[in-house]
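hey so u asked for the seq, here:
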Amino acid sequence: MGEHDRAEMAHQIASLSNPLIKTLKGLHQKKVRAETGLFLGEGARLAMEAADLGRWPDVLVYAPAALERAPVRALIDRAEARQVRIVETSESVLAQISKRDNPQTVLGAYKQHLHQLSELDGETIVALQGVRDPGNLGTIVRTADSVGAGGVVLIGESCDPFSVEAVRASMGSLFAVKLARASFAEVLAYKQKRGAALLGASLKGRALGEEYKVPMRAIVLMGNEQSGLSDEMEAACDRLVKLPMRGRADSLNLAVATALMVYDLWRRRGYDGASA
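ran it, structure tokens below
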């Protein structure tokens, strides 16, 4: 398809007062995301990775400059064939939507999707209790993707995994990792059914020695950034794990601590399935 034909098929919007543009701008707000069931994904790479996983946006918005890249032209053609609503607009409008001075030239509005806890499977599951920082959450989702974890479970009140900040931090892994919400009681029932070990990160724990035998299935339980795990959660764990430190720091960022926990388990399994 030529660029002229592609532009003809796209709906062109230049006004910030257009209802669709207002809705896209509103996806920075949790209320609007809840009302529409949509979230904002930024960038051609993210859109292409999502498409490869069968996830297509309801609306795909691009600036004319994006058409200079053949992969973007192919993406738009594929989206058009799947009856995705295609909108062409200016970079200044995209800047208003993304709230960035130098916006990505491709944006998409995607349907939110959470899995049932029972749909999560794999050697390692990450469970997060009350995570507050969307940057941490998105980074943890990306890390879970990198080790091939079976999913991420959000326990209790947590930040929105579909917020713009969390989606940006996930770098597209939000489309590859199964997300679920559950109570702690549901997680315990899930653990029992799967025969998994519950490993909780805690300053009350001890480091895993090299002799530690890695369970076939594990749920890595992480507390929130301020208070960690509750006494109830710690008591329910099969093992409390303390990450060893030797400097003055006595704690780590939640996303970093989670990465160390899941990568250590994967290392002990011989990096099974690693592609490099």
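Residues 117-268 form a domain with the Alpha/beta knot fold (CATH 3.40.1280.10). The chain has two domains: 3-111, 117-268.
lmk if thats what u needed
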